[in-house]
Every structure is written in C-alpha cells, then in structure tokens.
C-alpha cells in the first residue's frame, strides 16, 4: 500500500461522499486497511485533502504552463489550453472534483498554503487573455473576470459531462473556445 494508492482512494471517497461526509474509516476501507494502519501513512483527513489539492494543481500546472508560453497567437494558445484543461478534468474526475468542490473544506492555515498554487494556475489564463488584448486579438475590459468566467464554465463541465454522451470532451472544448472567442452574436 502506497501513499499514492491512499490518495487515489481518498479522492474517490471525497468525490462520492464529499469531504465532510467521508471518514478516515471510509478511506481505510477503500484501500483495505485498518483505520489505525491508515494513520501510519497519513496524519489526518486535512492532510489528505491538501495533498490531493496540491497533486491536482501540480498536474494542471505541468500540462497547462507549457501551452501558455508558446510562441503562437493568444487565441490559438487559449484554444489549446481549453482543450488540455478539459481533457485533464475528464481523465481525472475524482481528483478534479476534489479540487473544484472540496477546497473550501481546508482549515484556514492549510487553505493559505493552497491559495498561491491556485492563483498561479489562474494567472496562466489571465496572462494569455491579457496578451490577446495587448495584441488586439481580444476585446476584453476585464481579463481577470473573463478568466474566472472561462474557468467557471469549464469547471462546471465535470458535473454533467459523460464520456458516452453526445459530444466528446474535445468537441466540447472546441465549442467553448468558439463561444469565448466569437461570442453569441451573429456578425
């Protein structure tokens, strides 16, 4: 039994029951350990939650950062980032659900450790949108608000997306990019 096995199981338990509804016993059962044995690997549910949030953000930063600094126009960067982000969310649904829905369950001192990584991830998107504004590709009065709107749309996708649904995650990403870049108004 590895710490990674425990974190994977905990992510699944947190997704199914929510952080507050899940117990250390639930996590121990998911990995076929006695509750006391689980404490040899982790000290608390809060430690597990922080580790999962860190794991999710490291994954996202590793995949999205290189796309955000490519030497291509901002609209192309944004399209690639949207596609990559949605693919990561759909490939890691348990971890994504913990990141998106359970971060508020962190105790204050641990939340303060989480926020800089979250802000770093958000800044990748804001910078690409700002870059597009500077290059006169985008008309956007508030890149921070546009970033939060875009992330909000994409984040909510994991609540309804089904791999066997009408659209693939790539098709959804392309439609989101089109909506963001071209809007709803008929030209």
Structure description:
With 187 residues, this protein is an all-alpha fold. It has one domain (45-182): Orthogonal Bundle (Tetracycline Repressor, domain 2). The protein has nine helices and no strands. The chain is elongated, with a radius of gyration of 18 Å. The mean pLDDT is 95.
Question: How do the strands and helices of this protein lay out in sequence?
Answer:
Blueprint: H1 3-17, H2 24-30, H3 35-38, H4 45-68, H5 74-91, H6 93-101, H7 108-134, H8 143-160, H9 169-182
Helix pairs in contact: 1-2, 1-4, 1-6, 4-5, 4-6, 4-7, 5-6, 5-7, 5-8, 5-9, 7-8
Quick rundown:
By secondary structure, the protein is mainly alpha-helical.
For this entry, give a set of tags:
187 residues, mainly alpha, Tetracycline Repressor, domain 2, elongated
Helix content: over 70%
Instruction: Kindly provide the name of the CATH class.
Output: Mainly Alpha
Span between N and C termini? Answer: 58 Å
User: How many β-strands, per DSSP?
Assistant: 0
Total helical elements: 9
Q: Profile the largest sheet.
A: none
